[in-house]
Amino acid sequence: MSETAFEPGVPSPHMHDPHLHPPANAAKDAPSWELLSTCVHCGLCLNHCPTYKVLSNEMDSPRGRIYQVLQVNEGKMPLGETFVQHIDRCLGCVACEIACPSGVKYGRIVERARAQIEQGYKRPLIQRVLRNFFYNKVIPNFRTLSFVAKLMRFYQRSGMQTLVRKSGLLKLMGVADLDKLSPQIDKEFFFSEIGKVFPAIGAKRGKVAFVAGCINNVAFSHLNRATVNVLTQNGIEVHIPEGQGCCGALHAHAGLREEARALARHNINIFLGADYDAIVTNAAGCGSNMKEYDDLLENDPAYLGRAKEFKAKMKDVTEYLAGIGLVAPKRKIGQRVAYQDPCHLANAQRIRTQPRELLAAIGCELVELPHSDQCCGSAGVYNVAQNELSMKILEKKMEDVTSVSSDMLATANVGCMIQLRAGVQQRGLTLPVKHVMELLDEAYGGN
Amino acid sequence: MDSSIIRQLRKIAGKEAVLDRPEELMLYEYDAGVDKHRPGAVVFAQSTQQVSQVMKLASDKKIPVVPRGAGTGLSGGAIARREAIVLSLARMNKILEIDVPNQRAVVQPGVVNLELSNATTKFGYYYAPDPSSQKACTIGGNVAENSGGPHTLALGVTVNHVTGLEVVLPDGKVIELGGKAQDSTGLDLTGFFVGSEGTMGVVTRITVKLTKLPEHVTTLLAIYNTVEDAANTVVAITQSGVTPAALEMLDGWMVRCVEANVHAGYPEDAAAVLLIELEGMRETVNEQAEAVSAVCMQQKAREVRHAKDEKQRQLLWLGRKTAFGAVGRVSPSYYTQDGVIPRTKVPYTLAEIERISKHYGLIIGNVFHAGDGNLHPLILFDSRDPKQTENSRKAAKEIMACCLKFGGSITGEHGVGLEKMGLMTAMFTEDDLEVMVRLRNAFNPESILNPQKMIPDLHFCREITGPLPKAKFEPVAGLPV
Amino acid sequence: MSTVTSPASVDRELAAIVGDGNVKRTDFEINGVVPAAVVYPSSAEEVGAILHLANDRELVVAPAGGLTKQQIGCVPERIDILLSTTRLNKVEEYDPGDLTIAVQAGMPFAEMQRQLGEHQQWVPCDAASLEHATVGGLLATGAAGPLKSTFGHMRDFCIGIQFVTADGKVVKGGGRVVKNVAGYDLMKLLTGSYGSLAVITRANFKVFPRPRQTRTFACSFHSLDEALQFRTRLFQSPLTPMCMEIVSPGASEYLSNQGTVRDPDHYSPEQPISLPAVEWQIVLRATGSDNILARYTRELGSAVTRTLEGAEEEQFWEWICHFEQSVLARHQNAMVLYTHLAIQNVGPALQALQRVAPDYNLIPAAVGRAATGNLVLALMPLSVDPPSAMQYANCVSALRGMLPPGSSAEVAHCPKEAKPHFDVWGTTPTDVKMMRAVKRAIDPKNILNRGRFIV
Asked: Tell me, what's the pLDDT at A11?
C-alpha cells in the first residue's frame, strides 16, 4: 500500500469543517457553511447545467462551483482569476436546483460568491469601467437609460447599423454576435406611461401594480402595452407606480449586493405604497429577483418584514392570470406554438404549467419542445459578457427548436426573446419569437 | 506533474483539454463517494485515437491513468491514486448510432444514461439499466461499474445489456470485444470486461441492447405499520411467482426525507413502504397488480395504493431515485452503504441494522432494492463530530459483516473501488484474489490503469484492515446460523 | 485411432488422490482420440490435486461432464486425463424463498431442474440432452435452447462459480446473491470457455418462477422474407412471447416423430405430412393466463396455422431442442454450425445457407432463435455422393464468406476427418489475441483442452 493508509469504509467529511479552517477569504456576503453543506456532491446536477453540457468540465458544473466556493472559503484556493472565470460562466439559470435532491440553494450560493468576488477581487480596469457604467449609471437611472437607448436607436435607424454591418467592421472587432443580440430600440419608450392608472375593462376583478422593468421601457414598450391591455381586458385595474426603478436583478446576479439592496428598498417603498392585490411583471428575471428580496435583505431588520410582504404579492403575469382565470378571448390563435421555459420562471419560480395553460386557453396548439427547460444562453447580460459560451448554448437550443415542427416560438421573458431571435436569425429561419403576453394581446384584439 | 508530460498531453488532446493548475486539479479530487485524492493532471479525450495516444504516453512514462465519466460513482473508482492522470471521457458524449431493427445503440462512453433512453423512446425502445444517478452518470461509467438500478430486478444489470465494446488497452492498443450480435464465438470477454472498474482498459465505444417499451406499467405503493411486515412481503411476492419490474423498500425515516423533497404523496406516518412496479402486456400487468396487492394485504399492509396517473408514478420514482441526495436536507454528512443479502434474510438484516443504529446512536435510513436483497443503509453523521464519524465507520463495518454472515456480498452495484478494497479479503480467499490479479494482468500488466483499486495488494491488506469485527447477533427464530 | 497410454506412475498418483476405483480406462473417443485415463474426483480439492499433478507433468486434461458436447472443437493432439465431474453431483444449498440454488458441477441439469420443479421454479435453460448434460458442461459450452430469446443463457443465470485453475487452485467468483459486483465477473469468463481455462466444480444460479401455462402458435409463410416481415411486426407489437423460433422448410421433417429407425446415412425425405416443405415457419410460445393467451390468439389472427397445447406442445419443443441430435441421428456425416448474428442478419444468414448448400451437394435445414440470432444450421450430404473433407471446408468458407460482418459461426459438428482442413471456430468480432492472453494468464502451460478451443 502506498501513501495513504487505507481503511475500508472510512468516511471523510464531504465538506470542510468550519471550526478547523476559519474562512480565509471571508467577505461580508460570502456564502455560509450552512448553505454549502447541503451539497453532498452526488453530481445529479451536472447534466442539467448548460455550461457543463457544453464544456464537460467539473469547474463549470454546479457541484464544481460549490466546491470552488468552499475551497476559497477555506483558503485552499485563491480568490483569483480561475475562480472568477468559472463563477462568471454560471448562467444563474438554477436548473441545477430542480435536479438537486438535497435542496441546495445554488442560486443563493452563486450570487453570494459573486458578491464575494466584487468585495474581494479586483477585476481588470476595462471591465471595472464598463461594469460601473452599466450597473451604476445606465440601468438604475431611467434618464441615462433613455439617453443611451436614443443613441442606440440612432445607430439602428440612421442606416449606420446597416453600413457598419456591411463593412465587416463588427466581425473584425469580434463583436458581430453582440450586434445581433442588441435589442431593437422602440420608436416610443414606455417611460411615458409610468405613473398612469389603466382602468379595468368590464367587471373589475382586481387591482395590480405593474413593474415596467428597465430594458422593457426602451426596447419592449410594445410588450408592456400588450401586458397592460391583457390585464385590463381581464378586468384588472393596472397601476404603474411613479418612481419605480430597476429591480436590481442584474446587480444581484453580478454580485453587487449593496446596490441591489438599495434598489430593493426603493422598490419596496414604492410598491407597498398602495394596497394592490398583486405586483406583476412580465419579465421572469425581474420577478424571480423580486421574490428573493427577503433573502437579499435578510440582515436588514428594518426591511425584512416588508420584504416578505412584498414577496407574497409578487407575481409573474402568467402566474397571476392563470390564477384568476382568463376571460374568454375575442379570437382564438389557431397556431402550433413551441414554448421555451425561461429559466427564471421555470427553475427559479417553478412556473411551468401556467404559461402553457394560458396559451392553450387562447387556442394555441402546444408543441412540446425537447429540453424546453434548458437555458437558451441569454441569462440577463450573459450573452454579452460570455458571448462565445452563450452562442454554444444557443446552438444546442436551436437544434431542439429545429427538431420540432411549429409555427411560432413562445416564451415569457424578454432576455430569452432576444437570444432566441438571434438564434432564429442565425439559422435563417422565419419562425416568429413572441412573448406569451403578446399572443394573449392578439387574442384580445391588441391595441 | 512533469511539464514535459503536460506538453505532450496538450499535443495529443489540445491546449484546452489538459488541466494542470492546482485550482483546476482540485475539482477532480472527488466523486460522489467518500474518498478524495488530487490527480497530477486531467486530460479530456475526444476520440479513441486520443485515448490511445494518452495511454501509450502514460505506459511509456509509467504514469497511472484513471478513467472518469461524470464522477457520480460511490466507491472511488474515478479517484486518482498517486499522481495519476485523470482521463475524462465526458466529452466523448455522442450517440453514434441508434439501430432500431437490430435493437442496438452504439454510444461513446460519455453519453449520459438517461439521454440514451430519451433519444430512443420515440422509436418505442429504451435502455433498461437505470441507476439512480441516471440523469447524470455516463454509460462508460456504468460499464466500468456494472451498474444496476431499481429496474434491473426483472431485466438484469448493465452486463446483460452490453453486447460490444471498443477498448483501449494500457499500451494504447485498440481492441474490439463483441459487437451487435447477442454473443459471439470464443471467450465472452465483453461480459468479463463489464464491471472491471477501469482496471483492464478504457472503453471508447459501447454497443448496448435497446429494450422494447412495455405496453403497460403500473406502480403500487404498499404502506406498512412495521418494517418486518414490509420485509416479509418481499419474500412473499417473489415466492408468489410474480417477478416485478422493480421492488423497492423505503423505511419510515427515508419516506419522510423523500416526501419533503418530491411531494409525491408518500405517507409520512408509515413505518415502511414498498414501491412495486409491474410492466408488460396490459393483461399481465393487471393480473399481477391484483395478485401482488393481495399478497401485500395478506402480509399486513395497511393500504396498497396505485399511482393514479403517469405524473404521480414519475414523482414516486423521482423520490426513490433522489433518495440519497434528499438526506442532504437533514444531515450534513451521510455514508451510503451497498450490501447484498439473500432475499429471505431481509427481515433479520433490517433488525440487525436497527440494533447497530441504536448501539451507536446514529440514524440509519434504509432505502433499497428489496427484490434483489440489495441494501442501501444510509448512516447519518455530523462530520464535525469526530466521535460520530468514528462510529459511522464502525457501524458500516458491522453492517457489511452482517451481509457477509448471511452469505451476501459487500457490494451489489456501487463497486469495490477504493472504498471496499479492504473488505475483499473478507469475501475472497488469497487464491481467489490472486487469480483475479493474474487475469487483470493479462490486460493491464503494469497496473498503469486505475492502480490500487478493487483488488487489495495481497501482502499488505490484512495488516491494514485488521480482522472484521464480530457482529453480535441476537438469535432469531428460524434463522440458520 | 490414436490412443495415449499414461505411464503407470501417473495412474498410481491419480489413484492416490481419488482412490483406486476412480481411475479408469475408457474407449470413449474425442474426435478419434482416446484419453489415456479417466479420473472421477469427488471434491474440488481432489480436482485441485489432479490438476496440480497434471500441471507439473504437463499432462493434457479434458474436463468432462455428461459427454454430450465433447465432439465440438478441433481434433486434440492427445488427452492424458479425462477429468469427469460426475461424482460432484449434489445440491449444496437451495432455499426456494431466495430463488437461488448452489449445485456441484457434475449434477445432471435435469436432476437440478426436477428439484426446482418441486417448488414451481426452474432455471430457464432448454438445451439438448439435459438428462445427461451436467450443469458444469452446460456452463462450459454456453449451451442454450429456444428459451434464450427471453431469458438469455447460462451466463445470465450464473451468479457464483467455483472452479479449479490449471495449477490446482480452488477459486471462486461471485456469490449466492442475485446482484453482486465484488471482484471480476468470472462467471461470464468461464461460461462458454469450453473447459479451456479451468475446471468448473460448483455453480450458483438465480432461479425463476416456472410459467404455469403456455401455448404455442406456429405461423407458416411462403418465403423467408414474409417470415421475417412477420417477425418485424411482432417486434413492434406489444406481444412478448417467451420463445420465437424460425424453422426453415428443410427442418420441418426433423421436428416430428422419426418413426422407424432407418439407415442413418440414407437420405430420403419423409413425405411432408401437414406442411408442404416449401414453408418457412415462425413458432411462438406464449405464457400467461387464459386472458393473455386469448389475446395472442386474437392478435396473431390468421397468421397462425397451428396451435399447440399440453403434451403435444411439450413434444414439439422437445423436437426443436433436439433438432441437431435428430439430424445427426439420421446423417452422421452432417455438418452443424452455431451462429451468432445481429438480429437483422438472421435473414441474410439463412439465405446464405440456402444458397451455399446446393453448391456443395448438401441439403440445408435450420432452426433457431429468430429474436437473438442464434441459429443451428445443418448441412446434410446426399448418401449417393460421399463428401470429401475439402467439400466441408469449402462449404464452410463459402458460407462464412456470405455472412454479414460481425457474424460468427462455429462448426459444432462435422466428420473429424474434415476438421484439420478448416478453422472449426472461425472468425469472431472479439479480439482473439486478448483471449489467448487471458488463457495464458490462468493456464500458462496450456494443459486444459489443449488445441481444442479457439484459445
From this structure: 38
- The total number of residues shown for chain A amounts to 447
Most confident of A132-136, A253-257, A297-301: A297-301
Q: Please, do chains A and C touch (3+ CB pairs < 8 Å)?
A: no
- Choosing among 3.40.50.300, 3.40.50.1240, 3.40.462.10, 3.30.710.10, the CATH entry for C214-421 is 3.40.462.10
Please report which confidence band the pLDDT of residue A2 belongs to, taking 50, 70 and 90 as the band edges: very low
Question: B21 vs chain A: nearest CA distance in angstroms?
Answer: 10
Cα gap A439→C307, rounded to integer Å: 60
- For C1-210+429-455, CATH number out of 3.60.21.10, 3.20.20.60, 3.30.465.10, 3.40.50.2000 equals 3.30.465.10
A203 confidence band (pLDDT: 50, 70, 90): very high
Chain C positions in Cβ-Cβ contact with residue B287 (cut-off 8 Å): 288-289, 291-292
Cell representation of residue B277: 412496479
Of the residues B19, B27, B122, B315, the best mutation for testing chain A's interface (the one with the most A CB atoms within 10 Å of its CB) is B27
Residues of A in contact with B460 (CB under 8 A): 1
Q: Return the closest-CA partner of residue A406 out of A430, A426, A423.
A: A430
User: Could you tell me the CA-to-CA distances from B427 to A396, C93, C181 in Å, in that order?
Assistant: 48, 18, 12
User: In sequence order, what are the beta bridge partners of B86?
Assistant: B42, B66
**Is the pair C, B in contact (3+ CB pairs within 8 Å)?**
yes
Do the Cβ atoms of A2 and B36 come within 8 Å?
no
- Grid cell at residue B42: 486531467
Enumerate the β-bridge partners of residue C209: C121
Residues C181-201: tens digit of each pLDDT: 999 999 999 999 999 999 999
Asked if A76 has any chain B CB less than 8 Å from its own CB, the reply is yes
CB contact under 8 A, B419 and A8: yes
CA A237 to chain centre: 27
Q: Which three cell numbers stand for residue B406?
A: 448471511
Res. A140 pLDDT band, cuts 50 70 90: confident
- Closest Cβ–Cβ partner in B91, B135, B332 for A44: B135
Burial grade of B427 (CB within 10 A; 0-12, 13-18, 19 or more): buried
User: Is B194 within 8 Å of C185 when comparing Cβ atoms?
Assistant: yes
More confident call, A218 vs C23: C23
- Inter-residue contact B375 to B392 (CB < 8 Å): no
Give the C-alpha separation, B161 to B164, whole Å. 9
Give the three-state DSSP class for C204.
Answer: strand
Stretches where chain B sits below pLDDT 70 are: 458-481
Query: Does residue A61 sit within a domain?
Result: yes
Instruction: Name chain B contacts of A6, Cβ cutoff 8 Å.
Output: 418, 421-422, 464
